[in-house]
Specification:
alpha+beta; 7-stranded antiparallel beta sheet; 302 residues; transmembrane helix; signal; transmembrane; 43% helix; WSC_carb-bd; membrane
Length: 302
């Protein structure tokens, strides 16, 4: 009897061990299945860029300035960012979306579009354990990479923020009432007095500049008038000198005086007797209708 009881107890112990082992196997299989399902489409954590190596830059809700190049049947971070964007297109930034789309460009998307990694949840078509973008039912997300071509890459400007800041600046300068703007998480209240205080120095500076410009223009105009008057007087004087020269030339031409001779009555008339020409000129006049080139004997009553 004791032996039978001992065998029964051993059988019960073996049954308990078998049941416990079966339960553990089922739990392990369930955990493995759960972990395998959750591991697909996981966004890799952002890391610092490395030379000649692909590094994840983050999950973004916009593509920024990136351009869709193609869809890849076997899409991965290296296939898109390194093999296509860098080695074929010579671009430093790559991005994936919808699992099979490859985007390339020169700049990262705006920092304001960076979101939590959980939004990039679609597995890559070439390796579904890693995420290649995401979709939450309303918004499309992109996984952005540094292709390894350059460690220093620019970031696109936030167009929405720039437009908002421009609108806030315009309302601040034109509205006479108190306004508020937000910059870097701080709220700045601008009152009418502050605006007036800002505008007053600008108006004063503008008036000073206008006065200086007027003085400069006046000086230039006065100098132009003086210069014009001097040129007119000089031209008038030259004209008078030329007129006097022409008048003297005409007189000299009429009297037979060479232009370079000095004043005086030293002109020799070809009609005069050479002997008479050497004598002192008489105070009397000589008739122009007489020919004195030949000696003529004249008889007069004494």
């Amino acid at each position: 009897m004791k032996s039978i009881a001992f065998v029964a107890a051993a059988l019960l112990a073996v049954a308990d061990l078998a049941s416990s082992a079966a339960t553990k196997v089922v739990v392990a299989e369930a955990d493995l299945a759960s972990s395998t399902t959750a591991a697909k489409g996981v966004e890799q954590s952002a890391t610092a860029p490395k030379p000649s190596a692909v590094s994840t830059h983050g999950c973004y809700k916009s593509s920024g300035e990136l351009v869709l190049n193609t869809t890849l049947t076997y899409n991965t971070d290296a296939e898109c960012a390194q093999n296509l964007c860098w080695k074929k297109l010579n671009l430093p930034v790559g991005g994936t979306s919808n699992g099979d789309q490859c985007w390339c460009g020169e700049k990262y998307p705006p920092k304001s579009d960076l979101v939590d990694d959980k939004y990039c949840n679609i597995g890559c078509s070439g390796y579904d354990l890693f995420a290649c973008g995401g979709f939450d039912g309303e918004t499309v997300y992109w996984t952005i990479y540094n292709s390894g071509m350059s460690l220093i890459v620019k970031t696109s400007e936030d167009t929405n923020k720039s437009a908002s800041e421009s609108g806030s600046s315009s309302s601040t300068t034109t509205s006479p009432t108190a306004t508020s703007t937000e910059s870097s998480g701080e709220t700045i209240i601008v009152t009418q007095s502050a605006v007036a205080a800002t505008v007053a120095p600008v108006a004063k500076s503008t008036n000073t500049a206008g006065i200086a410009a007027g003085v400069v223009v006046g000086v230039v105009v006065l100098a132009a008038l003086i210069g014009g008057a001097w040129l007119y007087m000089r031209r008038r004087r030259n004209q008078d000198i030329e007129e006097e020269h022409r008048r003297n030339a005409a007189v000299n031409s009429f009297t037979g005086k060479p232009p370079g001779s000095s004043g005086g009555m030293s002109i020799l008339d070809a009609r005069l007797d050479p002997v008479m020409a050497q004598r002192r000129m008489s105070d009397g006049s000589i008739a122009d209708n007489q020919d004195y080139s030949r000696r003529i004997l004249r008889v007069t009553n004494a």
